[in-house]
Amino acid sequence: MATYPDNLRPSTPEATAAVAQSRLGVSAVAAPEPASASPGLDSAFRLGPGVERAVQARPYERKRDDPVYRPLRIFTLDPAASRFEGAVALVNVPYEPLEPGPCGALIEVDNYDSWQQAYYPRVDLDDPKVLLQDGRTPSPSDPRFHQQMVYTVCSTVRAAFQRALGRHIAWGFDNPDGHAPGPARLVLRPHAFQGRNAYYNRSGGEICFGYFRAEQKVTGRNPPFGFVFTCLSHDVVAHEVTHALLDGLRVHYINPSSPDILAFHEAFADLVALFQRFSYAQVVETAFRTTRGQLEQARLLTDLARQFGDTTGLHQPLRSAIDVLDKDGMPVHRYQAGAEAHALGSVLVAAMFEAFLTVFKRKTARYICLATNGTAVLPAGDIPTELRSILAEEASQLANQFLTICIRAIDYCPPVDLQLGEFLRALITADYDLVPSDPWGYREALIDAFWRRELYPQHVPSLFEDALLWRPTRQPLPPVHQLTFAELKFAGDPGRPAGAGELRRQACALGELITQPAYMMEFGLAPQGHPDLHGDTVDLPCIESIRSTRRVGPDGQIVFDLVAEVTQRRTVRRQDGSPEFDYYGGATIILGPDGAIRYAISKNVLNQERYEQQRVFIHGQGRAFWTAQHTGGKLVPQPQLFQLLDTRD
User: Fold this and answer.
1) Looking at residue 342, what is its pLDDT?
2) Could you say which of 470, 502, 535 is where a domain stops?
3) Quick one: average pLDDT of 12-17?
4) Whether residue 193 is found in the same domain as residue 48
5) What is the separation of C-alpha 301 from the centre of its chain, rounded to a whole number of angstroms?
């Protein structure tokens, strides 16, 4: 007899378990304000608003008698999927007391329907009757479940980022005007507008989900002209939350400087949605049962936003992680400079999933060998239940590792104008730093998958692992004594700063070093009046963020670092001297616990080749993402970049 989906076993993603059970301690006394100890502040460098945002990014601290988890039900795929595909899951999220909405420490769900111009009742997840039922019953027709759905998925994705990076993640915005003082909350709007779209809006600190009527001709378990809610697609919600989290980590990735940076935002958000799905045990086990253990054929796991494609005339998922191969077994879709952002992004997604699939086959070959008496050929019919469970468990654990690898690599990416090939270098370096021994060949699989799609980083002599690692600075730099872990102040945990004053002190200590004339070029910076500026002007270097991290590896190893971003704006001038557009340089700086600078991953503000590429892009293919200011005609990024980028109509 089948086990009916109503008898759900709670799924607890590894990141959620780690975050919910961590004991971080009470808040420490705020550090003193920096004063005369920072003579270069506002004369040699300045501090960006992101420096202090970490103190506004603290989630609820669980009390001794609090529950560890809050179990809630969600759609793991979308409402059109069958429950016997594992479409409904009971998910444990880190516990926090919630006001109706729900509204927590860092996430708030809005109940207004802009299309109907009506307020729906707010879901109260602390209501005893709702608690006893593990939240609202999944239903496309219940607006209160829609609120529960977006809160739950947002919480699990945020937990994955927090665990991977070893620190709290700040949003990329402050409280909008008129909001109550306190930590900035990301506002989720499940019924924001009528339309086939969903997007992250930094200026409003919100994610807006649209809903629409399906086409007359639909596929799948969808009625013609029925309502489709993007907020009920697990992939769409995870994708948009990732945009918001990535914006908090890299403030200038919202700057549309090249096709690659736009493609990366899209691809990275798809990868998070894809690997997050593997945390739902029933979906994974169902996929392995229907494909007899062939992961590459498991469309339940590899297709993205299936309902959206089935109801908008595509008659197929919006995107897929599986690439088409030619007669020689090579991917049909490869990197082409200047291609459309979504097309470029799909190349990166396919490369990451191929590497995942390669490692999965390596790690499960021994089980297949045992189950087939050494033939590696499974007999006809269903595969044994025990084998299916083992394969599903291996796939879930490996997907969690790849998700962590992807997120952790962000700390090793340059702060501006990331190229897709550079993400490979970030992946390899970040993984090597934490896990020097690689017996299963994770890094080799990544390199091969990128090579097969011609995703090459520039200026590397070969694609061997040692050639792809980021290099130390060209000249020896003195350690920053003020940034040794002996001098840093924490609020109970190295991933949690003591206060705004301590963060400013750390940022100023770094600023004093990087703005010394002998060292500026190491960090991609230039002094005003440098001859290679050709008459352009530069702002003071800006310390965008500085964060201490505590990363835990798969073998229990712990690595402590300090990660900072510094940027510098160059205003490009026309021949008549009027401003044309802004061009950024800078570096991601990684310091060890001893205050020594381990990496300065830089993009030089004087780089003429990159400068010309950006000029060509914003006046050509990327013109839709830029707008001219009313005064002076300077080109600036469109304020609603993700609304344009994620347009589905």
Assistant:
1) 86
2) 470
3) 72
4) no
5) 19
Contact yes or no for 241/118 (Cβ under 8 A): no
176 pLDDT tier (thresholds 50, 70, 90): low
Look at residue 448 and tell me whether its pLDDT is greater than 80.
yes
Q: Of 35, 57, 54, which Cα lies nearest the Cα of 544? A: 54
| Residue-range definition of the domain harbouring residue 47 | 28-57+474-606
In 3D space, the residue among 452, 448, 447 whose CA is nearest the CA of residue 328 turns out to be 452
Any idea which residue has 């999933």 for tokens? Answer: 353
What is the average pLDDT across 96-120? 94
Helices (H), 257-305: 259-277, 281-291, 299-302
pLDDT by residue (tens digit) across 511-567?
999 999 999 999 999 999 999 999 999 999 999 999 998 888 877 788 889 999 999
Give the C-alpha separation, 587 to 564, whole Å: 8
Instruction: Give the pLDDT band of residue 35 (cuts 50, 70, 90).
Output: very low
Question: What CATH number is associated with residue 100?
Answer: 3.10.170
Global pTM value? 0.93
Calculate mean pLDDT across residues 392-406.
94
Which residue, 406, 438, 470, sits at the end of a domain? 470
Number of compact structural domains in the chain: 3
Give CA–CA dist 349/617, Å, rounded. Answer: 23
416, 514: one domain: no
H helix or E strand, kind and range, residue 450:
helix 442-452
Strands 88-94 and 69-75: antiparallel
Answer yes or no: do 457 and 548 share one domain.
no
Return d(Cα 502, Cα 504) in angstroms, integer: 5
Q: How far apart are CA 473 and CA 103, in angstroms?
A: 45
Average pLDDT score, the chain: 88
CB within 8 A of 123, min separation 6: which ones? 100, 101, 102, 109, 130, 136, 144, 145, 147, 148
CA distance linking residue 103 with residue 632, whole number of Å: 43
The arithmetic mean of pLDDT across residues 205-223, rounded, is 88
Q: Structure tokens of 92? A: 């444990």
Residue 126 confidence (pLDDT): 94
What's the CA gap between 640 and 636, in Å, rounded? 12
Amino acid letter, 222? N
Q: What span, in angstroms and rounded, lies between the C-alpha atoms of 107 and 59?
A: 10
pLDDT at 1 over 50: no
The CA distance from 518 to 539, in Å, is 18
